[in-house]
Amino acid sequence: MSIAFTFPGQGSQAVGMGKDLADAFPEAAAVFAEVDEALGQKLSEIMWNGPEETLTLTANAQPALMAVSMAVIRVLEAKGLDLKSKVSFVAGHSLGEYSALCVAGTFSIADTARLLRIRGNAMQAAVPVGKGAMAAIIGLEHADVEAVCREASALGSCQIANDNGGGQLVISGEKAAVEKAAALASEKGAKRALMLPVSAPFHSALMAPAADAMREALAKVEKRNSVMPVIANVLAAPVSDADEIARLLVEQVTGQVRWRETVEWFAANNVTTLYELGSGKVLTGLARRIDKTVNGIAVNTPADIDAALAALLA
Predict the structure, then answer these.
(1) Of the listed 12, 44, 157, 203, which one is catalytic?
(2) Among the residues of 104-191, which ranges form H helices?
(3) CB within 8 A of 283, min separation 6: which ones?
(4) Which helix (H) or strand (E) holds 199?
(5) Any idea of the CA torsion for 81, 85, 269, 96, to the nearest 10 degrees?
(6) Is 93 marked active-site?
(7) Based on CB atoms within 10 Å of each CB, which residue in 78, 83, 214, 242 is the most buried?
């Protein structure tokens, strides 16, 4: 009977996120100041005041979401939570894997912010606007979505980017191929096949230039073995070795986020509660759909922190 901490990915950002934490807790305010300093930019101003389109830019959203997650962590620690003894595993969705690794001690907050800024810029620059696309396929089995991606690949690169569970898969690649795969999915009986309003085809082979940029950045950054196992996106299995972590983060840029399998791994390994730390509650909703035996709890407000501490320190 153990617990895991999970960390949200892109799409969970919202203007105003983290402001109540900064106002209530000096430890949270210190995290936002540290991220601002690391990036040489008042990212916290954009987070709290917008405009939304500036916050949503990949290069801003990624470090911003990490900052909120780390603010929650630092408050929990300041109020007496010993992470190493209470938390068995950590995992994050896409960019959230960097938040998880920061919590596990692999990277410092400042280095994590800088890595995510590099990652966001590299992902945005990898593919000309309009060339790539992503689509959500609802209500088809993994094998069926793989099959439509294979068929559509005659028109260009197309693959599963995210397996989010609950019958929700996201595909990514060249626009014509993704549109074809979405149409084929509808013909196969998908409940919905919906093109997504994204700025780039994340987690696809088209992201290879961004993977190269991350390989270079990760080779230069100081990294340590994680103090608790991190469930890697591309493996859906635990890793702790710093060099393996870096290799898998490079692979993650073009690889599949295996979130359904990650939650299933937790359930199979006696994890009963997943605390989602940071903005929003997307992962909490997904956990509920993937495995009813796993309890998901979102922690992102001062009241949430008090409730979580009451349970964790009981």
Answers:
(1) 203
(2) 109-125, 142-152, 175-187
(3) 6, 7, 8, 93, 96, 259, 274, 276, 296, 298
(4) none
(5) 50
(6) no
(7) 214
pLDDT score for 212 = 98
Q: What is the pLDDT of residues 60-71, one digit of tens each?
A: 999 999 999 999
203 an active-site residue?
yes
Closest CA to 223 of 89, 134, 44, 98: 98
Ranges in the chain, pLDDT < 50? none
User: DSSP E strands: which ranges in the chain?
Assistant: 2-7, 89-92, 132-138, 158-165, 168-174, 192-195, 230-232, 237-239, 271-277, 295-299
Please report, as a single letter, which amino acid is at residue 217.
A
In one-letter notation, the amino acid at residue 83 is L
Active-site pick, 69, 88, 94, 279: 94
* Tens-digit pLDDT profile for residues 226-235: 999 999 999 9
- This prediction has a pTM of 0.97
pLDDT per position as a tens digit, 272-296: 999 999 999 999 999 999 999 999 9
180/162 Cα distance (integer angstroms) = 18
Q: What does the chain come to in residues?
A: 314
Give the mean pLDDT of the chain: 97
Question: Within a 10 A sphere around the Cβ of 40, how many other Cβ atoms?
Answer: 9
Residue 199 confidence (pLDDT): 83
Whether the CB-CB separation of 74 and 23 falls below 8 Å is answered with no
